[in-house]
Specification:
single chain; alpha+beta; two-stranded antiparallel sheet; globular
C-alpha cells in the first residue's frame, strides 16, 4: 500500500527507489519534537507535523524542492 501511495505522489520504484528521502520515507512531511519544527529556535513542547527539512516536501532526497530556509532568509 505504501508503494501505491508513493506512486500517487509520482515517485517511481516505491520504497526501493534509491533517491527516496529516508527522513520522511517519501511522505514529504515529518514529525518534529517541538513546535519550532525545521525553523529551530524557541518552540513549545508538542509534537508537530511540518514539511521535511531534507527533501522540502518532494519525498525525494535526490530531487528536493526549494529550501524553505533559503527562501525565508531572502525575504
Amino acid at each position: 500500500m505504501w508503494d501505491e501511495f508513493l506512486e500517487m505522489r509520482g515517485i517511481d520504484g516505491g520504497r526501493d527507489n534509491p533517491g527516496l528521502c529516508r527522513a520522511c520515507d517519501g511522505l514529504g512531511v515529518q514529525t518534529y519534537g517541538s513546535t519550532a519544527t525545521w525553523r529551530g529556535g524557541i518552540g513549545g513542547q508538542a509534537l508537530t507535523l511540518d514539511v521535511c527539512d531534507r527533501c522540502w516536501g518532494s519525498g525525494l532526497q535526490s530531487r528536493p524542492w526549494p529550501s524553505h530556509r533559503i527562501t525565508r532568509s531572502e525575504t
